[in-house]
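Hello forum,

I keep getting stuck at the same step: I have a sequence, I want structure tokens, and every attempt I make locally crashes halfway through. Rather than fight my setup again tonight, could one of you with a working pipeline run this one for me? It's a single chain of 314 residues.
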Amino acid sequence: MEELIRVENVTKRFAGHTALDNVSLTIPRGVVYGLLGPNGAGKTTLIRIINRITAPDSGKVWFNGHPLSPADVPHIGYLPEERGLYKTMKVGEQALYFAQLKGLSKAEATRRLKAWFVKFGIESWWNKKVSELSKGMAQKVQFIVTVLHEPELLIFDEPFSGFDPINANLLKEEILALRDKGATVIFSTHNMSSVEEVCDHITLINKSHNILSGSLNEIRRSHGGNIFEIDHRGSQEALVAALAAAPCTLLDTSISDDEAVQSAGSSLLKIHIPNDEDVRDVVAIINNHTSLRSFREVIPSMNDIFIRAVAGKL
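Reply #2:
Ran it on my machine without issues. Output:
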């Protein structure tokens, strides 16, 4: 895929603390790129370097094939975790002010803002003071201001903080729509379920280092560990005995909690098959000793992978 951002061997230190240590990554164009890591890992420092808020001590950041420069900043939209609206100003007045700072004329800014306010159902807030808004309401306004000038790169740092599930889902849909229109999105969050819903690629930073990068689906599959779940009807004991001589290891046996499945006599087994070439033989053994309803690979969640990676267990 064509790259938009390339970070090469970036290091940044603050008063004896190394925030980033020789970090490299590549962000493809037109994707949602998850930037993950525990608190203090270095994510926000990297975001600020990409935004040119701060500069690296060493290393380079490339944007669109050239070294990142001040001329690239207008092509970036940034929603920081620390929110910043002037509480005494009216919502519409402030949104217009920020839009004009991004280079939009007052007429064009007004047209775009009105459309976004209608889309988010907040047109009645135009003449309210920011101090009257809840945290989630204020965040909607900041999201609109961030994307209004249609930048090539969007950076969202914990964008769902303060949102109820309905509004968080609205924001997710808008982020995906912006990606589909050609924007590249850097998405920093601690919420692993959100990562699985919106991200195409991820980088996991821990203790100032990039410890995991790649396509989300490839990472989940590659760290699955060849664990499979068997849903079957028939004698659990007979199947367990048959699998004892098969090239697999029994991990777990259970009866499904689902009442409809339970009434049908369905049982579950979880097994580990170390070698891919043995999967076909194991399935044949299962078919010979029970009525197989489903056989599926258990793909780990990003939450599981995150915890294992940070603990050094990948």
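Confidence is low (pLDDT under 50) at residues 256-263. If your local run keeps crashing, start a new thread with the error log.
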